[in-house]
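Supplementary Methods. Inverse-folding protocol.

Structures were first reduced to a discrete structure-token string of length 160. This string, shown here, constituted the complete conditioning input.
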């Protein structure tokens, strides 16, 4: 049982600050890997919460492997995200304020294979043709990355 699960046993669904990491996996065609999440049925980035003693890079590597079967050879820090936009209430009621370190990974190995419990589908999407239903905590991150890649105007870029 992970740190957050143990914490939830003590405090229930009350809001917590959740520290974690996610990964913008970009293939040789400059497409972005997204996963269809089992919990909210939205597309998002591979990632998750930090366990005690882990570094943010270790979280990114672990979650990437667990959710996609890919091994990151190189990770580059893209940005750290936090604040009101990163409040999220999970479908089962847990409330969090996310603090997320986002890494870009263009150098990876392995065959894409989804985690059967957390992921319904895994696909690479062209940045200009992303799916319409993006997971709320990942939307601002994907939005900023798309803007950095195509000259789009951040908040004006609509993925909805």
């Amino acid at each position: 049982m992970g740190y957050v699960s143990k914490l939830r046993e003590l405090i229930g669904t009350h809001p917590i600050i959740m520290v974690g990491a996610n990964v913008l996996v970009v293939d040789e065609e400059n497409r972005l890997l997204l996963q269809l999440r089992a919990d909210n049925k939205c597309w998002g980035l591979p990632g998750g919460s930090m366990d005690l003693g882990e570094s943010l890079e270790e979280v990114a590597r672990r979650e990437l492997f667990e959710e996609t079967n890919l091994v990151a050879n190189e990770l580059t820090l893209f940005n750290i995200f936090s604040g009101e936009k990163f409040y999220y209430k999970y479908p089962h009621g847990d409330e969090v304020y996310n603090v997320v370190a986002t890494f870009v990974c263009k150098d990876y190995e392995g065959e894409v294979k989804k985690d059967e419990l957390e992921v319904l589908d895994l696909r690479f999407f062209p940045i200009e043709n992303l799916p319409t239903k993006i997971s709320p905590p990942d939307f601002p991150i994907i939005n900023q990355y798309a803007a950095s890649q195509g000259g789009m105007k951040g908040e004006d870029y609509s993925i909805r």
